[in-house]
Amino acid sequence: MTAAKDQKAPQKPLPFQWQFVAGAVAGVSEIVTMYPLDVVKTRFQLQVGTGGADHYNSMGDCIKKIIKNEGFGTLYRGIIPPIMVEAPKRATKFAANEQYTILFRSLFGADINKQGLAIMTGVSAGITEAFLVVPFELVKIRLQDKANSGKYNGSMDALRKIVKAEGPLALYNGLEATLWRHAMWNGGYFGCIQGVKNAIPEAETPNGNLARNFVAGAIGGTFATMLNTPFDVVKTRIQNQAKGGVQKYNWTLPGVATVYREEGFRALYKGFTPKVMRLGPGGGILLVVFDTVSSLIRKHILLEN
Questions:
Q1: Domains along the sequence of the chain with CATH
Q2: Which of 35, 85, 193, 250 is deepest in the core (most CB within 10 A)?
Q3: Measured between alpha carbons, how far is 294 from 69 in angstroms, rounded to an integer?
Q4: What does the DSSP 8-state code read for residue 154?
């Protein structure tokens, strides 16, 4: 019985439009729940040196100072760009992962190591996703920086002022760093999920499978965050550099080396705690919501058994 279960053929991927819907619902659910931690992460990543009244000593200290000095709403400052891109971004993540799975199975044969396949498809999906998100990430980073609090009145104002002052191509500053960040995260996320699912037997009940998916997604999100945080730190700093100023960070690997040389290894993991607290559970939320919405679509719209 178990052997038959293990050998059953994988489900046929959903049509792209329904992958888009499932990915969009999953992404928006995750970002609305976890966004304040993203603001805190960005503040830590932009923080250089120590000391001063505005210095953040811990995640709790950062949240407390933001609310006290800037208001509770600041924890959601810059959320419009990620909300706008969240539907196509998460849809691209899951849909591209499924499509690359089909492609690589065809190229390399269905017997390819499952975890190796998951890593390859994850990296490819991450690279695809990165091209989509760069302008939205740049606007979000500028809005989240405390130094820009009086400079922009909102997302559209920030977009207009960036294009006017720096040119439209400035919206793609940090593309190379974003490619690194998303390739590392998606490769680690999907590869780790496959490894955890291989280690944990499929549950006998729907709730058991939801728990299994959440555990796999949370472990995958945590591991992926450990892999990609140094690239995320550099990406944040690249995208926060306005044209005309000193461009200290230009390329990812030299940027990682600069941060390490000037601030030490720990600086490469600035913002790690709020980031992993968001993307660990967030990875579980993503996988559970995506799988749940996909199952509902199969059952009630596509009428699959």
A1: 15-300 (1.50.40.10)
A2: 193
A3: 43
A4: S
Give pLDDT tens digits for 102-128. 888 888 876 666 888 889 999 998 998
The string of pLDDT tens digits covering residues 28-49 is 888 888 888 888 888 888 887 7
Q: What residue type is assigned to position 216 of the chain?
A: A
From 36-50, 80-94, 265-279, the region with the lowest mean pLDDT: 80-94
The DSSP annotation for 57-124 comes to -SHHHHHHHHHHHH-GGGGGTT-HHHHHHHHHHHHHHHHHHHHHHHHHHHHH-TTS-HHHHHHHHHHH
Of the candidates 279, 270, 281, 222, the residue with the CA atom closest to the CA atom of residue 42: 270
Residue burial 283-303, b: 16+ Cβ < 10 Å; e: rest: bbbbbbbbbbbbbebbeeeee
* Measured distance CA(223)–CA(221) in Å, rounded: 6
